[in-house]
Every structure is written in C-alpha cells, then in structure tokens.
Queue: 2 jobs
Job 1
Amino acid sequence: MNKRLIFLLLFSTSLLAHKVNLFITHEDNNVEIYSYFASGDACKGCKLMIKHGNDTLVNAHLNEEGKYQFISSYASLNITVDASSGHLVSKDIVLDLLPQENLTEVLKKEKHNQYINMGLSLLLIALFFYLLKRVKKNAK
C-alpha cells in the first residue's frame, strides 16, 4: 500500500512535464506565437490552428523553434496548439489586450515556478513520511 502511494505521488508530479504552454505577442498586425513544454523544450512541429469565430484562418505547424508568425487583420483570435497525445493548449485572445511581456522573462518566471513546485512536492513527500511514521508509532 505504501509503495503504491509513493509511486502515485511521484508520478503525479511528473505529469506537468508535458504541459504545453503558449506565449503570444503582437506588434502592429504581426502576431508571433511561441509554444513550449513545461521543461522549456520548444513544441517542434506541433499543429497550430488559428480561428476568428468559426472561420479557420491558419492550419499549419510550428517551426523547429516552436514558433509561428502571421499578419492578422482581426482583433480577436482563438489560437490552439496540439502537441498530440492529448497535450493541447488553446487561448482566446484580443490583440490589443495582450500584456507586453518579453519571452525571456516569461521563461525565467516559469523556471523559477518550476523550482518552487519541485520544492513543495519534496516537502509534501517528507510530510507524508513524517505523518506515516507518527501513525505507526502511535499504533504500537
């Protein structure tokens, strides 16, 4: 029973490793899309679909850097990146409301958050073992 629970805890923390992230910027009408996994690896060759309402504007693949650029004449879009095997991210955006962020800063923030999540996971595992030890001690 204990081994199963430990395996489940360790397995659940690794599930986020395949999370697909989507970063979108725009300047004038030029929209730049960058998609990457939680590990920081680019979403190479992932399927990209850009829609406005029910109209499909772009049906393409991201390049080797996980990027795609296009000129949009619409202010609102739905952007979907499909990395296959159920790894999908979709965002409805309004170009004028996109935050002015730098990709490098966003990646640094996510890397920092990843370290915090790993630390919290280790802390939870340690707490679990501590509580398990206390329960066994009280059971004697």
Job 2
Amino acid sequence: MHKLKAIIVDDEENAASRLTDLVEKKCHENIRLAGSFHSVDDGVAAIKSIRPQLVFLDVQIREQTGFDLLQKLPNKHFDVIFVTAFEKYAVQAFKFSAIDYLLKPVDPDDLVQAVEKIVSKKPPTNLFDRFQTLLENVDQLKQYTPPRKIVVPTISGFELLPVIDILRCQSDINYTTIFLQGGQKLVVAKTLKEFEELLSEFNFFRIHNSHLVNLAYIKSYHKGKGGSVVLTDGKELGVSQRRKDAFLERMAAL
C-alpha cells in the first residue's frame, strides 16, 4: 500500500513527540512521517524540500500561526490537518472551510478518522481557495460576525457558497440538498445534522427533521398543529409540532 509522506509542524516538542508516537502506532499503514519541525520558517523550508502530501500543522507556532506558514507558500499541493487548542470560534471556521482539524490533546480515534478521510479521497489539489476561505472566516468570527462563505464537497471537488445565499437545507438520509438564491441547488454527501451543527449559530433553524431554514428568508408563518412557514422563494414547509415552541421563540428574538 502506498503511504502518504507527512511532516509535523508544532513549536511544542512534547506535543510533536506525542503526535509522532500516535501516528506511528495508529496510522503506520497509511502515513510515513518524514520529520517534525518547530517554527514557521523551518516548516516552510521542510515543505519546499521534502514535498509532503500531508502536513500536521499547529495553529499557534510561537509568535506566529499555521496561517502565517500557509501564506508563505504560493502553491499548496498538500493536505493539512490542523492541530489546535483554539477556541470554539476557530473550530467553527475550520468546519465552515472544510479543513480537517484535531483538538489538543489529540484523541487517537480522532486522528485515525482524520487520516482515513485524507487517504480515501482523491489526490490533493491546490487548496488555495479553501485556505483563503479559512483565513477569511477566522477573521470574521474574531469580530463575532457570521462567516461569509462555507465550503461544501461535491462529486467533482468542492463549492464555495456565500452563507447569505443559502435559503434552506433538506435531508435525504445521508445526503443533504442545499437550496440557494436564484433557484440553484446542490446535493452534498453530508447529513442534515452536520449542517445543523454548522449553521445553527448563524441564523439557521431546524424546523423539521427534514428541513433546516435560514430564518432571514422566512416570509410568513401560518398557525396550525405545528404550523408552516413560507419562504421568500414561495416554498411552504411544515414545522414539526415538537419544534414549534422553540421556533417561535427564536423568531421572536430576531
């Protein structure tokens, strides 16, 4: 089996050593570690000389960040798994940008899952758009404003969608259909629950097991057992009875 060549960039030598041990014990069939590096400059030099396919990248590296490292590399033909002790806002940014991450202290099962996701997908392409989206979203969340874009995987690669353009998401078992302004829609291999976790803090509400809606696009609400909402595109959707009270409270707070 072909192994991915990987490096670790982390200024904490103990953390890098622990991650090295975990990778060698849990991921040795898929990963060949080519070294660990403890500064942004050393990491940049290592990426240019070793040309890894995967980089385990610490977020805070002394006075700099993993984002500083990425900005020093014009061509990013490698995958990245961020390793972070960052606050919730940064984790949210990773999710919005479809960038893999591990929380410190690294859980072995989370490591295996993240590596398997990298191994099972197509060879890495230039990740500039995704990294740029991540940087923008980190900046936005630091200012306590919703991220501007979300990255969603598609059959052919991925799409960058402005959050403001998403009207609603509809469940189809293990897939979700995203309905956008202008009538466009995308089918994504993620569950509605994943989108609910991602978007619920940003003006989206799950009114039904099958429907997650952007509250900004609700035109009207009609009373009933659970009632129903009409969106600005004319679509009418039922509100489940058990979610009705929470939905009305959320609408009243807008």
